[in-house]
Amino acid sequence: MSGESDLLDEVTPELVRRVEAALAEERAEEVRALLADLSATGQASILEQVGEDERDKLVGILKRDLDPKALTELDEEVLEDVLEQLDSKEIAAAARELEADDAATILEDLPEAERQEVLAELSAQDRAEIEQALAFREDTAGRLMQRSLVKVPDGWTVGQVIDYCREATDLPDDVYDIFVVDSDGRLRGSVPLGRMLRTKRPIGILDIADPDIPSVPVTADQAEVAHLFRDQNLVSCPVVDDENRLLGVIMVDDVVDVIDEEAEEDMLKMGGVGTDDMHAPPVRTVRLRAPWLLVNVATALVASFVIAQFEGTIEKIVVLAALMPIVASMGGNAGIQTVTVTVRALAMGELTAANALRFIAKEAAVGSMNGLMFAFLLAAGVVMLFGDWRLGGVIAAAMICNLFAAALAGSLIPLGLQKFGVDPAVSSTVFLTMVTDVIGFLTFLGLATIFLL
């Protein structure tokens, strides 16, 4: 299996080492030769895997030999570093080769003065298209869409459309659907390319168009667009304004990138990291990670306060200090399982107000069953080790309570955060940890105080 993976991966560790060695010895022609046959994704991968100094040398050697599409594949930190090595003319040359949405992604984080210098190097048409894309908010359909599409009047015949497609010079390289519009540019429907080619020339294009095709508003969030593509198995989707005028089209390859970005973003947020900081310098990484660590300190202090209330109990029964972390950690791990499922279901649109109660009840049942099972196992182990059935009973009861609480908290916290407009992926685990620690320590030490002293 690993052999097949190596064949599919064009950027191997050996290739990266060869590039680094050639850069170290300033063999520029060898560097160009090593990267010449790589795809845009492969070039981007090399740029991300070499060190910062080597990356600067590599960009200096490649300049305009760098595939413009490689820029769209780069991590934000690496892209910023690469663009610093290129002047406005070189960035403009790359932008000319890209769709307006991809060019906008590259230019959006440039300083305003430098962005204007780059735009000044472009033709009036290219500049206008990129500025239109930049006018839309990031992460919306307007930024995802490409304006290059096949749009034809609703009064044309199939023959006229075919002739137009043969003669036009500004059509996109990949065409899946023909979009039909009225005289005001409003979307009337679409025709799959294959259906049009199988239809006789005299037939009106509107007669074979699908009038009820899905479309998205230009202001729609990219996550909603991704859900639409997934749910309806779309290859392309038109983007319209408030009056249903056709503005552009979103292609499935752009949506695949969105799905990947959304999944990565949720995963990072659940780890208390707001963004991918793999390529960020240490100081910036500290700034990105510190805020949620600070929140963790606050929640840990709450748990410590609970423990402090039972200081006398712990002094009299020292073994409690060894056993109480077990209850808290089991609750935390069980709760994280529930939080992960809940956040994923919310992100995919599978968990709604209609089925929320059923979902919560199911997770509570799972927590109770897990609690009973592990309570029995843990109680048996405690009795065998310490010979005290009362201590075994206390830890068993605490385990049942904490795993039940973890299941409830793991489902209710993300739902509650989303209700108040807070991203559940960001802060659910922090509050969950506080709940499971507090409930775990409180029940275990509280029951120990009642039944063992």
Q: What is Rg?
A: 29 Å
CATH class term of the largest domain: Mainly Alpha
Strand content: 5-15%
Briefly note the structural class of the backbone.
Answer: mainly alpha
Task: Assign the CATH topology of the largest domain.
Answer: Tetracycline Repressor, domain 2
- Count of domains: 3
Estimated helix fraction: 55-70%
H/E topology pattern: HHHHHHHHHHHHEHEEHEHEEHHHHHHH
Count of β-strands? 6
- CATH superfamily annotation of the largest domain: SLC41 divalent cation transporters, integral membrane domain
CATH architecture grouping of the largest domain? Orthogonal Bundle
* Major sheet characteristics: 3 strands, mixed
Shape category: globular
Mean pLDDT: 87
- Assembly level: single chain
In angstroms, what separates the terminal alpha carbons?
A: 60 Å
What brief labels describe this structure?
Tetracycline Repressor, domain 2; MgtE N-terminal fold; mainly alpha; single chain; 453 residues; 6% strand; CBS-domain; globular; three-stranded mixed β-sheet
How would you characterize this protein structure?
There is one protein chain. With 453 residues, the protein is mainly alpha-helical. The chain has 22 helices and six strands. A three-stranded mixed β-sheet has the order 1-2-3. Strands 4-5-6 form a three-stranded mixed β-sheet. A hairpin with a 5-residue loop joins strand 5 and strand 6. Helix 19 runs antiparallel to helix 22. The longest helix has 31 residues.
